[in-house]
Amino acid sequence: MTRRIEKLPTPQGIGVGQTATLNLPLGPTYHRFDLRLKAAATGSTAANVPAADWGDYIDDIRLIVDGDVRIEISAEQLVKRAQFFGYTLQAGVLPLFLSMPWARTMGGEDQTAYGTFGGMSSFTLEVDFKDSVVLGSFRVYAEQSEPMPFGPHLRIQRFAKSFSVIGVDEISDLPRSAYALLGIDVTSTSIGEVEILANNNRVHVSDKEIRQSNHVIAERTKQTGMTHLDFMPQGRVNEAMPMALQDFRLKLDFTTAPAAYDLYLTSIHGNL
Question: What is the pTM assigned to this prediction?
Answer without folding.
Answer: 0.95
